[in-house]
Every structure is written in structure tokens, then in C-alpha cells.
Amino acid sequence: MSIMSSFTKKSAWSRKAEIGYHFLFWILLAYFTLLDFNGSNPFSFSIPRLDALTLFWTAVLVISFYFNYLLVLPWVFQQFNWKRVFIGLLVFYLFFVGIRYSFEEVLMPFFFGISNYFEGTPLFYYLSDNLYFFTFPLIPSTIFWLIVFSIRLLEKQAVLAEEKRSIEGKFLKSQLNPHFLFNSLNTLYAMVTINSDKALPAIETLSNMMKYTTYEAQKDYIKIQDEIDYFRSFIALEKLRQHDEVFIQLELKTEKEDQLIPPLILSPLVENALKHGRSDQNNPIKIKLNCQFDRLSFEVTNKVGEKRKDQQGGIGLENLEKRLEIYYPGNYSFDLERQPDYFKAKLDIRF
């Protein structure tokens, strides 16, 4: 389930509430504008006989209200700028004038023989006069829409925060999982037993990785160099742990080593390749990083063994894409290319 579908599912109740608020709004408007009150008692009133002009004006008001609410305002705020505001006002004004003229100067004379404006009213006067009347549906529909928009925006932020906590929690659990840790400790134990000179550096490497996942990975952003150091450590430890030799080809270019990125945004691609890929001297696992001031490109390519073809990718990469949507909505591309004999993951981020 995507973040937006999750948000839609969790906010379904607000649609019903919104409809209820619309009913309440029109009931209150009718209560204060259409009823004749007798004395000071708010419950003592009479219902006046509605004439044709009132009915047609009410129809114009309601139609214009929802034209602005359902069409104009969502378009204006889709990519808000003052040009869109001006175009939206102009379109709404022309719609209001057109619908009012159709109802009061065409339909009403046809059915009831009366009109709102005198016959022969100049066009300029009609247009200028409606500069005042078009605010009647414009102002309440805009205020109503902004209130609903604000409520939904706050709700969306709450859902995204909940999704972020959930995804981050699942993602962190996938790092240094017990199976990997158990095998690494067994490898270190064997090194210590035979007094290998690689034992102490390997223990330090594992310690640094655990420190990273425990402390650094809890932060929202870290330096890209810290992430690079982490997956370098992972590679080093994996080389010690694997029985077969692991061949890695690194090509790392960073114009700005203190560039901030979310933790564990690059290393899952490396871990995925090491876990599911195969490598040899002619087909190493290729890891390319190019971090510029305004863009980051990261690509990992690995050969796929016969027994691992169906395992490449999976939940870890799905969670990674969800995290990318949280941190870089609309500013990233994440492509997975699966071929019979190789797998490529490519990530591009615009800062």
C-alpha cells in the first residue's frame, strides 16, 4: 500500500464529515437569510413564500459556490501562484455572470415573464454590477474550502508522520539482522581462535556498524560520507564472512562530502547486491556514486546466480522507495532493472 493510498484510507471519514458540514452550512444560511423571525425568540419564525427571483438567485448561488469549491480552488492550489489566482478569479467571475444571466435574464422571463434587470440594461453596467454580487458565493466557498484543505493537510501530515515512524522502524529492523550478526560473530570467533591479525580490525568494523545503526540511523539526516563509510564497512565484513571471494568495483565521486541525506538510503542497495548477487573477477559488483551539489546518482549492478534470481529485490527495496517518497516527494527516481543474468538498481535524487 502506498503512502497516498494509506492516507486516503485513513482519512475516509473526513469525506462524510465534509458532506455533513455542507448540509449544516446551508441549513444555517437558510435559517438566517430565508426565515422571518417574530419577536426576539429565535424559535418563533414564519416561512415566507418564496418568489421566482429568490429561487433562481438561490440556484445561481449554490451552483457558483460549488463551481468554485470543486473546480476553481483545487486547480488554483494545485500549483499555487498569483497568476493562477488571477485566472481563477476571472474564470469564476465569468462563470457567475454567465450562469446568473442565463437563469435570471433567459430562463426566468421564459417561465415566469419577469427578469431581475431592466430590459436594455447596458452590458458594462451588468458586468460592473456583478463585481459586487459575485463575492456572495466566492467568499464563503473560498473560506469553506480553505478550512477543509487545512484540516486535510494537518491530517495528511499526521498520517505521513505515522507512516514514517512505521517504515523507519521496519527498515531499521532489517539492518544487522540476527542471522547476519550471528554469522559475523562466528567468523570473528574463528579469527580470534586462530589468532588472525584480521580479528581486531573486524571487531572494530562490526562495532562501528552497530554504533551507526543504533545512533546515526535514528537521525533524520546524516553526512553522505557517514553513509559511505557504513556500506564500506558492510562490504569489508561481508568479504570476511563469505566463503567465496567477493569482487567489488567502487567508483565514488562526491563534490560535497558534508551533503546531508537520510540514513540508510544508499546502503540497502549495496546490501541487496551482496546478499542476492554473485561476483567473480570478470563480473564484479559495480557500485557507482556521483554526488554533486544539486543532484545525487547512485547505481549498483550485480550478476545474478541461478539460485538467487527470484530473490533479488524484495521488501527492503519496497521500504526504501517509501522512505524516498517521504524525504524527496517528486524529486527522485528509483529504477530496478531485472535481466536473466544481472540486476541493476539506480537511484537519482534532486536536492
How is this structure best described in words?
The protein has 351 residues and is of the alpha+beta class. The chain folds into 2 domains: 159 residues, no CATH class; 175 residues, 2-Layer Sandwich (Heat Shock Protein 90). The chain contains 11 helices and 10 strands. The N terminus is likely disordered.
Q: Could you give a quick summary of the protein structure above?
A:
With 351 residues, this protein is of the alpha+beta class. It has helices at residues 3-10, 12-33, 52-78, 82-112, 123-133, 135-173, 178-193, 199-214, 224-241, 267-276, 315-327; strands at 36-37, 45-46, 222-223, 248-254, 260-261, 277-278, 285-291, 295-304, 332-338, 342-350. The protein is built from 11 helices and 10 strands.
Task: Name a few traits of the molecule.
Heat Shock Protein 90; two-stranded antiparallel sheet; 11 helices; disordered N terminus; 6-stranded mixed β-sheet; elongated; single chain; 351 residues; alpha+beta; 2 domains
